[in-house]
Amino acid sequence: MKIGILGAGQLGRMLAISGYPLNHQFGFLSTSNNEPSSLLGRMFINDDKSLVDFADVITFESENTNVEKVREINKNTPVFPSEKSLFISQHRGREKALFNQLNIPCAPYQIVNSRQDLKQAVKNIGLPAILKTTTEGYDGKGQFFIRKHNQISKAWESLSGVELILEGFVNFKRELSLIAVRDMNNNHKYYPLVENIHHNGILRLTIAPAQNISSQLQKTAKYYMQSLLDEMNHVGVLTIELFETENGLIANEIAPRVHNSGHWSIEGVNTSQFENHIRAITNLPLGDTTPRHNFCAMINIIGTVGNINTVLKLSNTHLHLYDKQERIDRKLGHINITANSQIELDASIKKLKAFLP
Ligand SMILES: Nc1ncnc2c1ncn2[C@@H]1O[C@H](COP(=O)(O)OP(=O)(O)O)[C@@H](O)[C@H]1O
Ligand SMILES: [Mg+2]
Hints:
The chain has helices spanning about 10-20, 50-55, 65-75, 85-90, 90-100, 115-125, 150-160, 215-230, 265-270, 275-280, 310-315, 340-350; strands spanning about 1-5, 25-30, 40-45, 55-60, 110, 130-135, 145, 165-170, 175-180, 190, 195-200, 200-210, 235-245, 250-255, 295-300, 315-320, 330-340. It is of the alpha+beta class. The radius of gyration is 20 Å and the shape is globular. Adenosine-5'-diphosphate binds near residues 138, 169 and 201.
């Protein structure tokens, strides 16, 4: 099939890489000729119409995709995931309303449209709390951590102008995420829970599967995910970010797409998140999501590429670069590690410590 992707970043690039062995072809809606996906298919520069003419099916690589555009395209060409998944997951308030509707625990929250709203929200929710833009945030951008009352004004001044949401601070032990995929015939496949370690709001390291996860915890996460997939009639990959606390799991946010915390699956799992997304949206049977190795990790390459020879010399590591220019805090690539024991994994991460903050 001909697959059209709205966007041309690294997620689109890795979707295409996984889809070519299935005999699919790819086209990308791009804003320039110099994107990570540029050499991976037909490029349509700001030309939605030609992309839609090219494609049998359309998907997107970002939740910041215009919902109106998707609705319009979907009149003639199928778009997966659905407009509903996109609409909910691009807005933190709608995500949390859905969590509440489905009895998935999440932080207390309140939408904030004025300085007065913010004061009232702080009164209701308490401090510490995090003020965020309801839309468009990524890598911790568009957020202000309010610890004390005397920071309220500064928080308001630094983010006001767009709709905001105040969220209660969750005192978590670990950050986890779960990735799953649902096809058009309501079949589901789940990847194992993974642990995510962030630095300055940016994911730096994923440990996969997360260690010391009880079967009860995995089951609960799976149950939350299943109810989200079914409620949104989602087709494709869906990710949920979770906080692990003393009192169980608290949902943070969802992403209607392949996710950075699933990049380990390229070598770590029988069928990667990318291939399973492509299979789901092209009505092929979903692939097995069993890990090939019990101890995997993914290290993001951020800002500068560094000495890649260190990576290439190791027998159990795999380098993935995205063909992007170096820039501070930019995701340029990642390293996947596959190991057969915790000791082997720890030793490999240690050898790659120059890539970690
Ligand atoms: N309510 C919260 N309580 C505690 N930490 C939070 C909360 N919300 C966000 N964080 C921290 O900030 C990071 C980024 O926030 P997130 O809502 O996931 O936004 P982004 O869209 O940037 O990923 C989270 O991974 C977590 O470390
Ligand atoms: Mg997040």
